[in-house]
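Narrative progress, year one. The postdoctoral researcher (J.K.) led the effort to move from monomer predictions toward full complexes, under supervision of the PI. The following entry was the first complex the group processed end to end, covering 968 residues in total.
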Amino acid sequence: MSLLSPWFLAGALAVGLPLWLHLLQRQNPVKLPFSSLMFMEKRQQSSLKERKLRYLLLLASRLALLILLALAFSKPVWDQPPAAVLGRIATLHLVVIDTSLSMNYGDRWQRAVAEAEGIIDGMEGGDRAQIISNGPGVQVLTSISADQTELKNAIATLKPSSSRNSFGEVAEAVRSLAAERELPVEVHLISDFQQTAMPGRFSDLTLPTAALMTPHNIADPNAANWAVESVKGTTRLFGARKARLEATIAGFAPAETEKRVTLLLNGQRVATETIKVPAGGRATAKFEGFDAPKGHSRVEVVLEPADELPIDDKRLVTIDNSDPEPILFVTSDRRQRDVLYYRAALDASSEAVFGVESLSPGEADRIVPDRYALVVLSDIAPLSSTFGSRLEKYVQSGGSVFIAVGPKTAAEGKAPLSSLRIELPRATGGSTARFQLAGEVEASHPALGHVERLRGVKFFRHALLWTTESDEVLMRLSDGSPLLVEQKLGEGRLILFASSLDNVWNDLPVHPVFVPFVAETATYLSDMEEGAAQAVVDSVLELRRRRTAASTVQAFDPQGERALSLTESLTEQMLPLTQLGFYELRRPGLTELVAVNPDARESNLRPMETDTLALWKATGREHEDIREAMASESALKPPPLRIWRLILVLLVLALLIESILGNWHLKVQREV
Amino acid sequence: MAIQTLLDPKLLGGLSNLELVARTVVDGFLTGLHRSPQYGFSLEFAEYRPYVQGDDPRFIDWNVYSRTDRTYIKRYLGETNTHLMILFDASASMGFGSHGVSKIQYARFLASALSYLSIRQHDAAGLIIFDNKVRSYRPPSTRPGHLFALLHLLEHAEPATTTNIELPFEHFQQHLSHRGMVAVISDFYADPEAVVKAVRPLAYRGNDMAFFHILDPAEIEPSFGESTLLEDMETGDQLEVSAEYARKEYGKRIREHSEAMKHKAQGIGADYILLDTSQPLDLALREYLLFRQRRR
């Protein structure tokens, strides 16, 4: 017998209490008048002996009560004798069933279910199993059980999903599940073993000690699949801009195939293109020059004829045909060269949809900045108090300002809204031939993803920004001085550029990198990051942006059902996208569509190399000695029996005896 | 305690049958049960014996002398009334009772019954109530109203102090002028040898002795359920006694004591009757009378 919680045995020390009570209890015999003590003798010793004898029964029952109580809490288990097992190797079968998107292919799922049921049917005496699904994520469906009906019922509830498979997650889950098991573990992985489900590091596949993996590969060796891998193009329309989409069709087939690609706009067929998809290659279908109605449109790119995995033959995108987001550009340059370059850069960008309104500082006093997605202050001396206070309020409530520090701002020694100390610009060397290049760039910042370190841009002059620890320096010049600094002000953001936008202090505006620089900073500051309109299933959508943080967001799933309760629509920050299709988000005065597509990696049915699979299996065999030891031990030592019920019965029995004896002693005293 | 209680009609009815038996066999209750130790004047001839010096010349049969010229004394069986002296133990131990009737209460019934029986037979009845000394004394008498005086004494006899059986027996010897019957009613918590030693002179003087040993059932077979602290009702001493001892050893000792009393009593020609206070009183008297009958 062993104990699962031996520390509870310390409670048995409580037996000292009844012992103390019984040993130190004052003897208090009953006083009785008697005619004569002539024939009586003092037999104290005998009397006490008898009393102890009787009380010892009571004491024993009390001691048993306390000891059994402590024993029950310490979870005793009874190790069965070896004869009970007859040498059978009991095994824990972890049945992991791949429920990812690729399992929709052909009759893979039916074969996977049959395989899993076969494993359950093959269980022998002492074996137990646990059903685990993989996709989305790893889900443990049952507890460890020997009940085949329960296990098969769990299998029957499964169906293939639209999620992605990950063997790394499977291995991690198996390591966790098998960590505290006393039985040898056999992992039955029922899957199509896609190469794309492999983790980045092979070590993530390591199986736990003494776990043996048995792969059940239900993949077809000649499986062919075609999928709409991606759809890119102009999805934000405004003005006269026409929509343009480019669909990439991936073929995972041994032979070249001709496919029709159809574009559906809000359910209506817009265009069809026939392409030849090479064997194991990709082809592109382009759809240009079509109009989309105002607002959000649902676009489907459908591949025909359908193959055996139809779920990835369609890809969804949304087209947003709405007015451009306004940008207020306040400049002190009478020639407005900075506005020219800035607007040109935004127009050149296919991603950013902004309209630029330029004003002088004097004109800006009449403006309420709240309706602008972004305010750009280009070389502005101190703002008027009216506009300054409005602008500060705008930023505090979540607005953003891009400040280009030119000679006028630098001469002021302080930029509007910012507390940064700025020094007058100085010549980089006294000669115009001398310049500096951009040095460190925080490439992971969302506003600097494609600026390529401003390669080739020469900075002839710049302002010195005396940053503090709370400021984030996104870019530095080659001499280490800050070039691009981000500050937070209330709920909003400021980005300070330590040079001008008018092609005087630097030649950035005439470099191609100026386009992504302007577009990305504008997109970042206006909180309109790309990608929000398209998402992969099982990802999470951020519901609240800075400028809409306090507003209600109503979310509807592709079936039109509410994805959020009323309370969640006020407070929830994230929305998990678990279904394929169009999610609809309704904000006050604004409706957005989010197209949710399957992970393109699931479309590639190419199985992993047999050598790789063998290596994976070998991670479990690495500990074959231990496994064999466990197996032999298991053969002799069956799973221990939990005997707490027996302890409980004994406990009740001891309680009954104690009650009877105690009552009897009390009765005796009353009678006397 | 009312006299009517003491002389229970049922009890008297029970005794009445025995009295009828006694009256049929002998005159009077006590005379019917034993021969008078005195040779007095009576009509029933007993024997002749030669006159010796010191004999009362009034008893010489002159007719025989005239025929034989020898002097003979003619003797008759003297069947006279006798005296019954009841020696009543009123020590504290007699106050013990475990079932409603204490030993002293039972002893009162017994003494009253004996007194009534005796006086009804025109025998003189007396009473000594004692504990460690003589508390009350009433000499034997047959006068009318004497019975009520005895019953009055018995009624007011309450248990008190300790027992010393030698003192009342000495007093009894001092007050005994006639040979007769002595009934000792006690629980006899004393050494049998000492008791017998005290009464032996009375027996030698020709008195018929009867010991009525009164014991409560709880004294014969005590049943303590638990270890018990016993308090002596006479001395106030306390002793913790185990139930086991009370069941086994004590019972053995009290039986041995009773046997010793019986044996010692028989040694001096006295009767010994052990009376359990749970037994009916008429049964106790009937046993006594039957015992006397067997003795005859």
